Amino acid sequence: MTTNRTFTMIKPDAVENGYIGKILDMITEAGFEIKAMKYTRLSQKQAEDFYAVHAERPFYGELVSYMTSGPIVAAILEKDNAVADFRTLIGATDPSEAAEGTVRKAYAESKGRNAVHGSDSDENADIEGKFHFAFEEIH
Ligand code: CMP
Questions:
Q1: Which atom of ligand 1 is nearest to the CA of 120?
Q2: CA of 77 to the centre of ligand 1 (A)
Q3: Which pairs from 30-33 meet CB under 8 Å and 24+ separation?
Q4: Residues flanking ligand 1, CB < 6 Å
Q5: Cα(56)–Cα(20) distance, rounded to whole angstroms?
Q6: Is the pLDDT of residue 132 over 80?
Q7: Which residue of 5, 54, 65, 105 is surrounded by the most CB atoms within 10 Å?
Q8: What's the pLDDT at 119?
Q9: What is the average pLDDT score of the chain?
Q10: What average pLDDT does this structure show over 80-99?
Q11: Catalytic site positions
Q12: Distance of alpha carbon 37 from alpha carbon 94, whole angstroms
């Protein structure tokens, strides 16, 4: 199991608002190396599968519809302590609770439209990275 990688998506709200470059800049400035990256759009099935863990939550339908509403940037990032450090960099799920200097404080619209995803564990980072990238797309 890798312990130095995490998976992220720049979500449709941040793409739509023109923040791809600014967010990637914050990510690389914080010391993360990009191991894989693509500009893509989730299908209904991909979004349902990716968020299957939230299937019973009241916001699941809204989440799937939002995540398929426009293109995203998906990436695998590498850094020591990647999962925890990336979650610190992006801030709390709800931008109104996110610390100053975090990606979500700067660029997220709301708890639902919250600009970026960050894996919550090494295990999920591995699963989520493999969900989006084939072996030969990871460098
Ligand atoms: P993320 O942590 O990337 O993955 C799960 C997502 O569910 C989370 O980001 C939010 O975008 C979304 N989410 C969590 N709680 C709520 C909520 N109460 N209402 C709408 N969306 C939510």
A1: 2
A2: 21
A3: 30/79, 30/85, 30/89, 31/79, 31/85, 32/6, 32/77, 32/78, 32/79, 32/82, 32/85, 32/86, 32/89, 33/77, 33/78, 33/79
A4: 54, 59, 62-63, 93, 111-112, 114, 117
A5: 31
A6: yes
A7: 5
A8: 98
A9: 97
A10: 98
A11: 117
A12: 25
Band (2; pLDDT cuts 50, 70, 90) = low
List of domains in the chain: 5-137 (3.30.70.141)
Predicted structure pTM score: 0.96
Indicate the top mutation candidate among 62, 107, 114 to test ligand 1's pocket, ranked by most ligand atoms within 8 A of CB: 114
- For the stretch 23-33, pLDDT in tens is 999 999 999 99
Distance CA 30, CA 19 (A): 17
